[in-house]
Design brief:
Elements: H1 12-26, H2 28-34, H3 44-67
Length: about 80
């Protein structure tokens, strides 16, 4: 954890500025921003499972459309 102790006769602004400088120099903010939106790649097994599930859902939907059991407001 990063912390700064207030020196004698030091204003809050200078203490805060010194604290921010320590945070910037530590590199923590940069590393957190770098991985903020990172998504880990899918494993082949998980990708295959998802694609099979999507095909099953699409096949079921096509069947319902052809059978006339899907409401017209859900058909796009």
């Amino acid at each position: 954890m990063i912390y700064s102790v207030r020196k004698d006769n030091e204003t809050f602004e200078s203490l805060f500025r010194r604290f921010q400088k320590r945070i910037q120099s530590s590199g923590r903010v940069k590393s957190i921003k770098k991985i903020r939106f990172m998504v880990s790649p899918l494993s082949k097994n998980l990708a295959n499972k998802r694609s099979v599930k999507k095909r099953e859902i699409a096949a079921r939907r096509d069947y319902l459309i052809k059978a006339g059991k899907l409401p017209s407001d859900e058909i796009r």
